[in-house]
Amino acid sequence: LWRERLHRCVQFFLEAQEAYADELLGVETEKPMRLQLSMGDALLHVEGRADRVEALSSGERRFVDYKSGK
What is the DSSP letter of 69? Predict the structure, then answer.
């Protein structure tokens, strides 16, 4: 049963990668990030690490967070 699920997950991932391969300019992994957001008069500081950051030909960034179940 787990092999079938794993196969479906891998197949989905590979098909998704192929679908937007032309858009992808570069990839960074385990990218530390720090954001500062203003919320009215207050500032919110957020820190974290993105599993994967993809640079797209449109100039946008796509952030991917893989879940390991841990």
Answer: -
Burial class (CB in 10 A: 0-12, 13-18, 19+), 50: middle
pLDDT profile of the chain (70 residues), mean per 10: 89 87 89 88 90 92 77
pTM: 0.60
Cα 24 from Cα 61, distance rounded (Å): 10
